[in-house]
């Protein structure tokens, strides 16, 4: 019998570590760690956040415009409140053509893993469609879903679930392709 | 080569001395629902060479853990035994075993020499005064001693129940650590009982829902290593993987092998809509299996490869549907209250295990393939993602506890609804997928 020694397994997986991960999971407070939650994402996707008081900065977008919208249980329909926030996002993006955005969709933990991945994608896509309807070029927007993998709030009750059912617009450099 | 290349594990029938293989009255009919476990005796296996004592004791322990762990058998404590075995060939004194109400007796010997461990065993039907089946001899390298024990336990289980065992099998799963909002996930593989954990990836990116190929030599899973959900195919032997091709701007996830291992069914998300697709495991262009504005995900093939059960919210909430493996009109099979997800076809083909959500709780359940005879086996704050033992008798699943300090662990339950047990690994774990019985 031939066993792969552990060292070989480790070598094989270390090669995967260097990836450009755009995830930010939603800051909501204007302080985005460009390193992401795991210290990944320090590649091309990272962007200088600037100052909240500078209306041209991603930090201003996150905090003053609002980078996040929330959803009703199981739904991807945009609420009136969400539409107001997204209208502001579209206005800012239209005025700042050097940036593009990745829209992250998230679900609460009350669902199965793979279904929630699909549900998060539906939410991210609803945001993307709205921004496009407001004049933002589709080429500047990309979507990703984290399903229930990255909750913002960790309690297991409706106030936390409501915070976790969200889509976050993460600003990155580049006018898209 | 990992542990799947098992050619070296050789089995021999033990010749003379063994009674004729004959089906005695020693038998458990699992379908009847075993309430009272069958009492058996297993004197610690005889060390047949110097230095084999510890190995013999360990192998005996693992066999006992396998058998007792099913809930179908109960070991009579060794200190109650009246007969001692100084040699593997010591004649059995049936009266001594009847006196302590042992129904089955397992006698074994272990020798170590030339870089090999050799295990011999015989199973006796105490009340029929005869051996049940031939004696057997198994050999493997010392690192595989646990597999030897599992193989012996599988033979004993099989002779008494008339069904194949599931002990010599493995589980691929997601090992979890860290706080709930920054959970670290890595792919890991372990023996069915939680022993011999090996990590297949590091924790630099999210990984989800691995699945074995039908022969257990490859694993499909979802990884965020590009920043977006993508499907990766890993060769278990050398832990090398490759991302499957995808259409730019889409997400792909929820991959499953067909029973012949030649094709892969998966979910593809484009513009917010998720449908099921099929591609050849060797490449080629994908075929679309569903075409609806709803979410279609979590596919699972019937064992004969002719049909696929999956989860869809086309009727509103997620429910279970079955369609022909090449696509076509699906039939809804779940009609109970609540939401149904993660359907998994049983290895016998007669049942589908699923996750159900109702009234703020999660359940693992089983139903017939036409949706009838639904039975819920477990209930908790969050149970999800069933996987079948190779013989279709046991289901393993993820149970997550609530709150900020909540975490995921693996549990098993018999399809009778009895014998709920945590799978013995120390850390957090989710998304188990059970391998076929190893060769």
TrEMBL record, chain A:
Keyword Metal-binding attributed: no
Entry keyword Protease: no
A Gene Ontology biological process term: cell division
PROSITE patterns for this protein: OMPA_1, OMPA_2, PROKAR_LIPOPROTEIN
Name of the molecule in the record: Peptidoglycan-associated lipoprotein
InterPro entries in the record: Bact_OuterMem_StrucFunc, OMP_bac, OmpA-like, OMPA-like_CS, OmpA-like_sf, Pal, Pal_lipo_C
Location of the OmpA-like domain: 58-175
Membrane topology qualifier: Lipid-anchor
Matches recorded under PANTHER family: LIPOPROTEIN YIAD-RELATED, STATOR ELEMENT OF FLAGELLAR MOTOR COMPLEX
Domain of life: Bacteria
Naturally occurring in which organism (per UniProt): Paenirhodobacter ferrireducens
Leader peptide range in chain numbering: 1-17
SUPFAM superfamilies in the cross-refs: OmpA-like
Family matches, as Pfam families: OmpA (PF00691)
One cellular component term from this protein's GO annotations in UniProt: cell outer membrane
Summary of the function given for this chain in its UniProt record: Part of the Tol-Pal system, which plays a role in outer membrane invagination during cell division and is important for maintaining outer membrane integrity.
Subunit comment: The Tol-Pal system is composed of five core proteins: the inner membrane proteins TolA, TolQ and TolR, the periplasmic protein TolB and the outer membrane protein Pal. They form a network linking the inner and outer membranes and the peptidoglycan layer.
Homology family: Belongs to the Pal lipoprotein family.
Localisation per UniProt entry: Cell outer membrane
Keyword annotations from UniProtKB, A to Z: Cell cycle, Cell division, Cell outer membrane, Lipoprotein, Membrane, Palmitate, Signal
Automatic annotation (TrEMBL), chain B:
GO biological process: cell division; protein import
InterPro entries for the chain: 6-blade_b-propeller_TolB-like, Tol-Pal_TolB, TolB_N, WD40
Taxonomy, superkingdom: Bacteria
Annotated TolB N-terminal domain residues: 26-132
Pfam families in the record: PD40, TolB_N
Major localization class: periplasm
One Gene Ontology cellular component: periplasmic space
Keywords: Cell cycle, Cell division, Periplasm, Signal
Cellular localisation: Periplasm
Cleaved signal peptide residues: 1-21
Subunit and partners: The Tol-Pal system is composed of five core proteins: the inner membrane proteins TolA, TolQ and TolR, the periplasmic protein TolB and the outer membrane protein Pal. They form a network linking the inner and outer membranes and the peptidoglycan layer.
Known function: Part of the Tol-Pal system, which plays a role in outer membrane invagination during cell division and is important for maintaining outer membrane integrity.
Similarity comment: family membership: Belongs to the TolB family.
Protein name: Tol-Pal system protein TolB
Organism whose genome encodes this protein: Paenirhodobacter ferrireducens
């Amino acid at each position: 019998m031939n066993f792969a020694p552990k060292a070989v397994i480790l070598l094989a997986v270390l090669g995967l570590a260097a990836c450009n991960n755009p995830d930010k999971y939603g800051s909501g407070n204007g302080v985005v760690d460009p390193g992401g939650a795991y210290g990944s994402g320090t590649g091309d996707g990272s962007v200088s956040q600037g100052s909240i008081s500078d209306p041209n900065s991603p930090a201003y977008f996150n905090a003053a415009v609002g980078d996040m919208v929330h959803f009703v249980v199981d739904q991807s329909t945009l609420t009136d409140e969400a539409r107001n926030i997204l209208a502001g996002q579209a206005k800012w993006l239209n005025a700042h053509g050097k940036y593009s955005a990745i829209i992250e969709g998230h679900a609460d933990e009350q669902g199965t893993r793979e279904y929630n991945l699909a549900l998060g994608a539906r939410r991210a896509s609803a945001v993307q469609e709205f921004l496009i309807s407001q004049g933002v070029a589709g080429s500047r927007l990309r979507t990703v879903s984290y399903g229930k993998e990255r909750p913002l709030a960790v309690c297991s009750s409706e106030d936390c679930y409501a915070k976790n059912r969200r889509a976050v617009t993460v600003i990155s450099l580049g006018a898209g392709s | 080569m990992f542990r799947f290349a098992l050619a070296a594990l050789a089995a021999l029938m033990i010749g003379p001395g063994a009674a004729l293989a004959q089906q005695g009255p020693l038998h458990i009919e699992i379908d009847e629902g075993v309430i009272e476990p069958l009492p058996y005796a297993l004197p610690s296996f005889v060390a047949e060479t110097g230095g084999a004592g510890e190995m013999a004791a360990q192998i005996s322990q693992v066999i006992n853990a396998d058998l007792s762990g099913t809930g179908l058998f109960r070991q009579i404590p060794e200190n109650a035994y009246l007969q001692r075995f100084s040699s593997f060939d010591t004649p059995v004194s049936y009266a001594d075993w009847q006196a302590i109400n042992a129904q089955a007796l397992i006698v074994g010997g272990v020798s170590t020499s030339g870089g090999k461990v050799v295990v011999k065993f015989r199973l006796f039907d105490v009340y029929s005064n005869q051996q049940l089946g031939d004696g057997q001899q198994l050999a493997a390298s010392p690192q595989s001693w646990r597999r030897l024990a599992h193989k012996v336990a599988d033979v004993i289980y099989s002779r008494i129940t008339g069904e194949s065992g599931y002990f010599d099998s493995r589980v691929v799963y997601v090992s979890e650590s860290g706080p709930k909002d920054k959970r670290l996930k890595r792919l890991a593989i372990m023996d069915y009982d939680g022993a011999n954990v090996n990590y297949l990836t590091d924790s630099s990116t999210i990984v989800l829902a691995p699945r074995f190929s039908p022969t257990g030599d490859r694993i499909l899973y979802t990884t965020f290593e590009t920043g977006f959900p993508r499907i990766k195919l890993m060769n278990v032997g050398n832990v090398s993987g490759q991302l499957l091709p995808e259409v730019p701007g889409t997400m792909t996830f929820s991959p499953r092998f067909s029973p012949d291992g030649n094709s892969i069914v998966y979910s593809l998300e484009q513009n917010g809509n998720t449908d099921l697709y099929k591609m050849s495991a060797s490449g080629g262009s994908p075929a679309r299996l569903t075409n609806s504005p709803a979410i279609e995900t979590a596919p699972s093939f019937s064992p004969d490869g002719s049909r696929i059960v999956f989860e869809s919210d086309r009727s509103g909430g997620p429910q279970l549907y079955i369609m022909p493996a090449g696509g076509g009109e699906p039939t809804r099979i779940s009609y109970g209250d609540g939401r149904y997800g993660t359907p998994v076809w049983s290895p016998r083909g007669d049942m589908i295990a699923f996750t159900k959500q109702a009234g703020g709780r999660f359940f693992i359940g089983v139903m017939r393939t036409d949706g009838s005879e639904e039975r819920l086996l477990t209930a908790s704050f969050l149970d999800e993602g069933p996987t079948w033992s190779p013989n279709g008798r046991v289901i393993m699943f993820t149970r997550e506890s609530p709150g900020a300090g909540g975490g995921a662990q693996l549990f098993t339950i018999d399809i009778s609804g009895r014998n709920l047990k945590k799978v013995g690994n120390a850390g957090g774990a989710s998304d188990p997928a059970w391998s076929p019985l190893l060769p």
